[in-house]
Amino acid sequence: MEDLLFEIQLALPQVILGVINGAFYALLSLGLAVIFGMLNVINFAHGAQFTLGAFVAWMLLSWLGIGYWPALILAPLIVGAIGVAMERAMISRLYRIDHLYGLLLTFGCALVIEGVLRNNFGSSGQRYAPPREFGALDLELGDFFLPGYRVWVLIAATTVCLATWLVIEKTKVGSYLRAATERPQLVQAFGINVPLMMTLTYGAGVALAAFAGVLAAPIYSVSPAMGANFIITVFAVVVIGGMGSIAGSIVTGFMLGLIQGITEVFWPEASQTVVFVIMAIVLLTRPAGLFGRA
Amino acid sequence: MSLDRRSVIKGALGAATLPALGGLPYRSARAQAANTIRIGVLNDQSGLYRDISGPGSTHAVQMAVRESGITQRGINVEVVQADHQNRPDVGSTVARQWYDQNGIDVIVDVPTSSVALAVSTITREKNKLFINSGAATSDLTGPACSPNTIHWTYDTYMLGKGTGGAMVAAGGRTWFFITADYAFGHALERDTTAFVNAAGGRVLGGVRTPFPGTTDFSSFLQQAQRSRANVIGLANAGGDTINSIKQAAEFRITRGGTKLAGLLVFVTDVHSLGLEVAQGLVVTESFYWDLNDRTRAFTQRLGQMPGNLRPSMVQAGCYSGVLHYLKAVAEMGVAAAKASGAEAATRMKAMPTSDDAFGEGTIRADGRKIHPAYLFEVKTPAESRGAWDYYKLISTIPANEAFRPLTEAACPLVRS
């Protein structure tokens, strides 16, 4: 019994760290799910837009002296606006043809964004110091020190995920959105501007990615590859959760973070692979995903 | 929704393999002139090792071509570059295409040990020449040594002896490794472990982290801290090392007296981390831009590097290796150099090396380039006098001690 308690004590930090990483997966897969649900576009540029969020925060700080808190609002707005421009100029032209073109287009955009950043800022990454005030949230659990900033990441990501879910499931705007997902022509016939709604949805999904990017900036090196490292896992999360399912992407994001965190202890070499093993199992047993409708 | 899951997955897989095909260099081999030497710089142009190698290596190679004075002798030199994306399959494909179709005579740089080992094999098969600067594994001059491969700048033995030896000497008796899970990380962990054990230290454990793609090291650092080892050895490089050191500071891993040993830290990594986080780290390098008058002159001549960075030891090694190769070409003639990479390597081994980046040196029979290694400590922000003033010299490991002795090497070339 004592042994078990001891084991739990040892595992607790890993569980916490896993859930915090899961918060990033949840935020990113949520944005993907929103975009896919509404636009039917697999947004391969999502990782690059996450990176862009972190870089905009870094630019605001180092070029204009604008700190973390304003950046948390400004960077998603700026990157969201870039997303709106992308949707209007390019993505909206592809709705009528095969969906794989949308995937290729956004993948191309991701390569361009990452290439431009790499060319201008190199691959080693820029530093972005976490704001000092998070020291108040620092947690000491025996030997384990949990930085306040990671606690904040968990709080912020969970709040934003819940808020997005509430907006989509419980508000009037959300109901239009859901209706437009199912029957766009019918909703348009009721006088609702569906193309505008699609544009804004894409912008909002992109803003979510940028928000995650700002949250990640103080933890990871702000480098052009930071999004690419996440995005493959996040796509697996979306597939496991069920394509386009809002609640599914949030729950699956946290869950996979947790599973990865535990795998990092027992079989570190497999900690990236485990996500894809789960994806394979889910695809075989529930092809529509854990939360998807067949 | 007409978009089904199967096509999503197929599309995703297709997209993931696209850059591999798109990245292939394509040059016409028609203009093959008998007196043209073709140099292919193969390295990471887009990933975590770009800043230590990447376009900066090509920049350094071009300077070596200019300074060799070879064109004044009527010999043409062409330099091309390609991205291997840190993937052995991509690197092998490029190397084969370069040798078979594009008339490349020598491949230079190739960081990422797994890719370097693959390119070394292909180079031997085609009897061309491989001057490796970027990869670390000491196997290139050990079990996997080749008459066509010269390992120029550094290796895992040098790093283990330098940083590992210094940490044990300073009282770090027990170790825990965080190792990048591929050829390089394994070799670095193995070579460092040998020094730790020889000095009476002990390795308590380790984790192997997936490469590439690991961004969060907090869980691994936590495990390292729990092992109560004196030293956490980081057997990784580039972005992995940066994230490990950054997150170790964030989680206050070193507050109980545990020390971090960055076994392979480049000056560009320190630049990215900033002195606030990196101060006090002990690093081993064979080149530092501000080491002496000659290295400063070399750095000045390089001019503005891509990305406004200072040269890494890998990029300096590309310069030094190509300069020496072109000296050998000038002596033996273009035809002979092109005909046999092994012959060119033999000629290079017979001549002493000399350049501003590494000073005077030699190349051993097993293909190991020999020069001193330097143990540096990263300065505190207060000690740094300006941009890129990052290191203070602690000690110099003389050339004859910096690398694995020939008698210990498992290189078949030497035994026969």
Automatic annotation (TrEMBL), chain A:
A Pfam family assignment: BPD_transp_2
Record keywords, A-Z: Amino-acid transport, Cell membrane, Membrane, Transmembrane, Transmembrane helix, Transport
GO cellular component: plasma membrane
Subcellular location(s) per record: Cell membrane
Topology class, membrane: Multi-pass membrane protein
Record keyword Iron-sulfur present: no
A GO term, aspect molecular function: transmembrane transporter activity
Domain of life of the native organism: Bacteria
Signal sequence extent: none
Transmembrane spans: 12-34, 41-61, 67-86, 98-117, 149-168, 200-220, 226-259, 266-285
BP GO terms, sorted: amino acid transport
Protein family (similarity comment): Belongs to the binding-protein-dependent transport system permease family. LivHM subfamily.
Listed name of the protein: Branched-chain amino acid ABC transporter permease
UniProtKB/TrEMBL annotation, chain B:
Pfam families per UniProt: Peripla_BP_6
Residue ranges occupied by any Leucine-binding protein domain in the UniProt entry: 36-379
CDD domains: PBP1_SBP-like
Keyword Nucleus: no
Keywords: Amino-acid transport, Signal, Transport
InterPro entries: BCAA_transport, Leu-bd, Peripla_BP_I, TAT_signal
GO biological process: amino acid transport
Annotated signal sequence range: none
Keyword Protein transport: no
Family: Belongs to the leucine-binding protein family.
PANTHER family: LEUCINE-SPECIFIC-BINDING PROTEIN, PERIPLASMIC BINDING PROTEIN OF ABC TRANSPORTER FOR NATURAL AMINO ACIDS
Protein name (database record): ABC transporter substrate-binding protein
Lineage of source species: Bacteria, Pseudomonadati, Pseudomonadota, Alphaproteobacteria, Acetobacterales
